[in-house]
Design brief:
30 helices; alpha/beta; 7-stranded mixed β-sheet; 60% helix; 670 residues; 9% strand; two-stranded antiparallel ribbon
């Protein structure tokens, strides 16, 4: 017999929720979106053998990381709404043992809901390394819930945790009462009195607390009969002081708990994390160190590992293409069909897949930096600069995500509370070069700047960041004027990344790239082959094709930038579908076959590009219209076609203007 159990995984950001989720579910999970929003939802399942003839099927829902259950941001709203409205059987509260005091604020809010809660005390190894000792038996007694020490990254304590989840689902739970001041209790009682006649899904005391804390969305949990009375009560002069007192009371209670359950080694030396942070978060050294780290990332991605592997892929794909061509000739396949398969579909797809090693290397390095905890330091050291631009410090997180893909990065702006900061972050995000542009950068840099690939590509990323920040500054002074909000975040301790987790994360991103190569790029390559080999009268030479005609119409616009040829113009138009398609289009237009080696590519484009015009082409590719997926994300997140067309227009103008300046100035010196 199999029983079913739904568990909600809740906890602060950056404490190992993803690691625990993957450790419990393995590969048995699905990824989608929460209803009505574009925020990712991860749901998985696993089994627990409860008795000889009974197993429990556990459905684990990973809630967005949040510091509280107040509905002031989208992540908080999703976590709170799921727990309250979907009523999971058990809440699995993941807590960082090395930062227990900060984590317990969310725990108290969960306990006040009166639902079954099991605490997983994660990173016990780090807590021990910091000289911290936690009396879990005392903590269990004080909070009244099962508490299981675990190390999720090493799968320590997971069996005990699963057993505790199953047991907790069978036990009736009661709401936890934090001791508040008498004045708060009096106001709580008055508020609860207005709620007690209603059938509520959660304790009236919890709703009253949320309302007193200023969470107006808590009214959605109450029938409309007493809304006016509640609004009147919550607008009195005493409420603001009560809100602060509730928060203070919670932290005083947490401090009381900590004093009873935690002790530290008096002889503890400065931690490894603090020693490193002394340099990497230094006011003056932090940004230069970040620049050096990113240069090392690019050197590894291109010069050290990526390009040698790319050359190998280039050779392998060339042999495969020859075998396919010979096989089609042996089968007497019609010339036009053979050309479509070889010169169209395979040339386009292989031309992009050649750069898979570079993309994989970039994802490996960025995942390592994120897993070690360094990316959180980047957000910290960039905060001062972001505030000078008028942005919330949280804006740096979507910017960093943009280096992988602009679509989830734009979706990630949902965590920014200030709507004007959020709009600014959305509109500048495409300037932060996504991985789809990487094949273009690599191809041109290898062909026109051999031996200097890392420097060239690093400079492009730097230009994108600089333009993005300058535009943000202008937007905050004009379109989206507002005062910047303070940025508060907890810096996680440094730790060695999990090889399995890195492999999983990189494979997910590489798999997405392969799927795109087999679908979008394949279809686009076939369409491009047709428009480059046909016109309205039928088959024709490429120079007289429909594609060439389209390119010639657009080409004069790019002449002042140094690349006024129809091939470049058509490639840029195709790149709106997906930036990788610029490479596949180049392969088809210039008849490169599967080979995209630097020498072959340089020889093919030498008559159309100089090193200066090639660099200006890369700048334009960096800054111009993002792909249709990103445009769709802008439309969804702004809920407006107006802002999508605004993004298209202003990015085209900036891309043309910056490329023109570089080409004009460059001609004065070269």
């Amino acid at each position: 017999m199999t029983n079913h159990l739904t568990v909600a995984l809740a906890g602060n950001p950056n404490i190992g929720k993803t690691t625990l989720f993957n450790a419990l579910t393995g590969s048995h999970y699905t990824v989608g979106n929460w209803a009505g929003v574009t925020v990712e939802k991860k749901e998985g399942h696993f089994y627990y053998q409860a008795a000889e003839h009974t197993s429990v099927s556990i459905n684990l829902v990973d809630l967005p990381g949040t510091y509280s259950l107040s509905a002031f941001s989208l992540d908080e709203s999703i976590a709170r709404d799921y727990i309250v409205k979907e009523n999971p059987d058990v809440i699995l509260n993941l807590v960082d043992a090395s930062n227990l005091e900060r984590n317990l604020y969310l725990t108290l809010q969960l306990l006040e809901l009166g639902k079954p809660v099991v605490m997983a005390l994660n990173m016990m190894d780090l807590a021990t390394a910091k000289g911290l000792k936690i009396n879990t038996e005392m903590l269990t007694s004080l909070l009244g819930i099962p508490i299981i020490p675990i190390v999720a990254s090493k799968k320590v304590g997971l069996k005990e945790l699963t057993a505790a989840l199953v047991t907790a689902s069978k036990v009736d739970s009661t709401a936890y009462h934090v001791p508040y001041l008498a004045s708060i209790e009096a106001t709580l009682s008055e508020t609860i009195h207005l709620l007690e006649d209603h059938s509520l899904k959660v304790p009236a005391r919890w709703i009253a607390l949320k309302l007193l804390e200023g969470d107006e969305r808590a009214l959605d949990l109450v029938p409309g009969e007493h809304h006016d009375e509640l609004q009147t009560l919550l607008q009195t002069e005493e409420i603001e002081a009560i809100r602060e007192s509730i928060t203070d009371s919670k932290y005083e209670h947490i401090s009381s708990i900590i004093s009873k359950v935690m002790s530290s080694d008096a002889h503890e030396q400065t931690s490894f994390t603090n020693k490193i942070d002394h340099f990497v978060t230094h006011r003056f050294l932090g940004i230069p160190i970040f620049a050096a780290v990113m240069f090392a990332v690019f050197y590894f991605t291109f010069n050290l590992v990526g390009n040698p592997l790319t050359d190998l892929f280039d050779t392998v794909f060339g042999h495969i293409l020859d075998l396919c061509n010979n096989g089609l000739v042996a089968l007497n396949v019609a010339d036009w069909l053979r050309a479509l398969i070889i010169d169209g579909a395979l040339n386009g797809v292989f031309g992009v897949l050649t750069f898979l090693p570079n993309i994989a290397c970039l994802f490996i390095t960025l995942t390592i930096l994120e897993d070690t905890g360094y990316m959180a330091r980047v957000a910290f050291i960039m905060d001062e600069l972001m505030r000078k631009l008028g942005l919330n410090g949280k804006s740096i997180i979507p910017m960093l995500l943009g280096f992988g893909c602009n679509v989830p990065a734009i979706m990630g702006t949902r965590t920014i509370e200030d709507e004007k900061d959020r709009m600014t972050s959305i509109l500048i995000n495409p300037f932060f070069s996504c991985s789809a542009r990487l094949p273009i950068f690599t191809l041109f840099a290898s062909a026109f700047f051999p031996g200097k690939e890392a420097i060239v590509i690093f400079s492009l990323y730097f230009i994108g960041i600089l333009i993005g920040l300058l535009v943000a500054f202008i937007f905050k002074k004009t379109l989206f004027k507002s005062d910047s909000m303070p940025f508060i975040m907890e810096l996680p301790p440094y730790h060695l990344p999990s090889i399995k987790h890195i492999a999983t994360q990189v494979w997910e991103k590489v798999r997405g790239f392969l799927i795109k190569a087999g679908t979008t790029i394949f279809v686009a390559s076939v369409i491009l082959w047709f428009i480059l080999n046909f016109n309205f009268t039928g088959p024709t030479d490429m120079s007289n094709s429909l594609g060439a005609s389209i390119g010639r119409i657009i080409a004069p616009v790019f002449a002042p930038l140094g690349f006024g040829n129809w091939q470049a113009a058509l490639s840029l138009i195709a790149g709106v579908v997906g930036k990788e398609i610029v490479v596949s289009n180049m392969a088809i237009v210039y008849g490169l076959g599967a080979s995209t080696s630097a020498t072959v590519f340089h020889d093919a484009l030498a008559s159309s590009f100089s090193p200066l015009s090639a660099y200006c082409f890369l700048i334009f590719t960096l800054l111009y219209v993002p792909c249709v997926g990103t445009l769709g994300a802008i439309k969804r997140e702004t809920n407006s076609l107006k802002w999508m067309w605004f993004a298209i227009s202003y990015q085209l103008l900036i891309a043309w203007g910056v490329a023109f300046i570089f080409y004009t100035v460059g001609n004065l010196f070269f």
